[in-house]
């Protein structure tokens, strides 16, 4: 750890009223790709995920299941903590808001807000949507069937009237606007940033941060009748996990806070980009460095929902298409930040096109030619001509491109850049025709195959964050040692050594044979 720069990134914590589906897996996957990338690039990464277990919504679901909320939360939380094994997520911690460490941090945060004069007791009367665990103003609602009031998200609202503690959010309008202005990349993508800025410019109402009409949550310190608002409780998880309120020198808090990135879906941006920095500033703590709001997935053109029966579990995707293809598809199919549609067709196109025909074909034909014609060892290159230097140069340039793209969470553009080199590699094979050189100029054939193998080494190292298993198989076939797979090994200084024996080649990206073409 010594000498490495810290990088702290988080997923939202998932409500335990639901089973994990591809929407949840998507948020965590994006973080996992970043976490793996940063580790390979020499950073000291802390990657946090977990479950959001309090609140009325979970209490209701537990009641519907006929069990106590804690037992219910224990059961459902396990579905989320099992997800890393399915998707190969490499989170360093898994937080549950029912843990004592979190209770402790929430109390401390409340007390800091109170001590700084940002909390007052009042009474709330207004609209609340349990599904969103959010309050709405009358002006935001529309009328639904049977006299119901409907939130902009489509959730049913209920009228609530009860004593409540309030957070002086109204006082944070200007400080928030100043903060957004001073940190133009705090909210990404830019379109989402503009929405948040417009919302805050429109004026902020004080926020009700406690409830008295249900039990399942963290009690307000000093006033046991009140339960802390579940979003205040939930957001605090990000500082609990770095040991808040222990903020002294040499603590995890000092090392990792402020977080480098909170990755969230677009539906929960307001909580992260407005309420959370306001709470933190009010408590005298630093706001996070970035909140990125990604888009939502539909399934075969439809909204995912239990009632439509089209909810896809991550296990199902991995079982049907394989881990690497699933991870690749989710990161490549949609420009990160936009909404996207999952369809079987689109998935099969990616598997058979990008993976089998492009990347797989490049790797397979090169490795099998080396296996057959170069004594199953890394070939000995001769002098390089312009075409060789062009391909290698493009491959060696990828790390900088990838760093730049991921600095803005543009996963798709990073992959586009990798595929540009894969395409160039396949064209180079066709142009150089090493199979024809075998008889006419074996030395030149060796050079061409060497250039290709070295290009594949770059690609194999760089695709590890997205496709850990397939990339490992590619690097195994090039006899790249486990310890030589970090980004510090990219580039010409650690190029393949001629004569290194190579194992027998085997396919890395199988084609998907569609047995249901009508789908
Ligand atoms: N518990 C809150 C977050 C608290 S963070 C302090 C919550 N949980 S959630 O389980 O409802 O949603 C978690 C994440 O899953 C959100 O980022 C949400 O955007 C994401 N997704 C849920 N359905 C989704 C899709 N269909 N597509 C993409 N992401 C979606 O909100």
Structural account:
- This protein has 519 residues and is of the alpha/beta class.
- The chain has a domain at 344-494: Isoleucyl-tRNA Synthetase, Domain 1 (Orthogonal Bundle).
- Helices cover 47% and strands 16% of the residues.
- The protein is built from 20 helices and 18 strands.
- The protein has helices at 22-40, 56-65, 69-81, 83-87, 100-115, 173-182, 190-201, 230-235, 237-240, 252-256, 269-282, 314-321, 323-332, 344-373, 386-396, 398-407, 411-432, 434-440, 442-462, 468-477, and strands at 6-15, 44-52, 93-96, 119-129, 134-136, 142-143, 149-150, 156-167, 187-188, 207-208, 210-211, 219-220, 223-228, 261-265, 291-294, 297-299, 302-303, 340-342.
- The protein has a six-stranded parallel beta sheet with strand order 3-2-1-14-15-9, sandwiched between helices.
- Helix 16 runs antiparallel to helix 17 and helix 19 (442-462) packs antiparallel against helix 20.
- The longest helix is centred in the C-terminal third of the chain and has 30 residues, at 344-373.
- The chain is elongated, with a radius of gyration of 26 Å.
- The structure holds 5'-O-[(L-methionyl)-sulphamoyl]adenosine.
- The site of 5'-O-[(L-methionyl)-sulphamoyl]adenosine (MSP) has 19 residues, from strand 1, helix 1, helix 8 and strand 14.
């Amino acid at each position: 750890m010594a000498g490495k720069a810290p990088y702290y990134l988080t997923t939202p914590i998932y409500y335990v009223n639901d089973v994990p589906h591809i929407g949840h897996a998507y948020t965590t996957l994006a973080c996992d790709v970043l976490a793996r990338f940063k580790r390979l690039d020499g950073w000291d990464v802390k990657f946090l995920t977990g479950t959001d277990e309090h609140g009325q919504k979970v209490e209701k679901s537990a009641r519907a299941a006929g069990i106590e909320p804690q037992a219910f939360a224990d059961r459902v939380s396990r579905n989320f903590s099992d997800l890393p094994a399915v998707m190969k997520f490499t989170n360093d911690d898994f937080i549950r808001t029912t843990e004592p460490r979190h209770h402790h941090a929430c109390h401390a945060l409340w007390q800091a807000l109170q001590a700084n004069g940002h909390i007052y007791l009042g009474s709330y009367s207004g609209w609340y949507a349990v599904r969103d665990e959010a309050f709405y103003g009358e002006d935001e609602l529309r009328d639904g069937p049977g006299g119901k009031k409907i939130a902009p998200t489509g959730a049913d609202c209920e009228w609530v009237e009860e004593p409540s503690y309030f957070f002086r959010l109204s006082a944070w309008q200007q400080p928030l606007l100043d903060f957004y202005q001073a940190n133009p990349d705090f909210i990404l993508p830019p379109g989402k940033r503009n929405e948040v800025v417009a919302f805050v410019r429109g004026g902020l109402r004080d926020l009700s941060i406690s409830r008295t009409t249900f039990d399942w949550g963290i009690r307000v310190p000093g006033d046991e009748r009140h339960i802390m608002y579940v979003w205040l409780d939930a957001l605090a998880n990000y500082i609990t996990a770095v040991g808040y309120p222990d903020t002294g020198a040499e603590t995890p808090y000092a090392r990792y806070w402020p977080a480098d990135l909170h990755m969230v879906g677009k539906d929960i941006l307001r909580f992260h980009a407005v309420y959370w920095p306001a709470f933190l500033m009010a408590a005298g703590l630093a706001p996070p460095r970035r909140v990125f709001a990604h888009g939502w997935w539909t399934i075969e053109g439809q909204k995912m929902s239990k009632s439509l029966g089209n909810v896809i579990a991550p296990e199902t995707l991995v079982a049907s298409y394989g881990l690497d293809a699933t991870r690749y598809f989710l990161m490549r199919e949609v420009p990160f930040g936009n909404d996207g549609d999952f369809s079987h067709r689109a998935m099969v196109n990616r598997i058979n096109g990008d993976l089998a025909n492009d990347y797989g074909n490049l790797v397979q034909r090169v490795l099998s030619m080396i296996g057959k014609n170069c004594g199953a060892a890394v070939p000995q290159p001769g002098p390089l001509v312009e075409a060789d230097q062009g391909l290698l140069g493009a491959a060696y340039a990828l790390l900088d491109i990838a760093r730049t793209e991921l600095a803005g969470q543009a996963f798709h553009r990073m992959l586009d850049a990798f595929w540009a080199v894969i395409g160039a590699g396949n064209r180079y094979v066709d142009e150089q025709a090493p199979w024809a050189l075998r008889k006419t100029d074996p030395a030149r054939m060796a050079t061409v195959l060497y250039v290709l193998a070295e290009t594949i080494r770059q690609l194999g190292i760089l695709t590890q964050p997205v496709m850990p298993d397939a990339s490992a198989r590619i690097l195994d076939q090039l006899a790249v040692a486990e310890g030589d797979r970090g980004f510090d090994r990219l580039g010409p200084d650690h190029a393949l050594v001629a004569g290194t024996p190579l194992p027998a080649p085997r396919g890395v990206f199988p084609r998907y044979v569609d047995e249901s073409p009508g789908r």
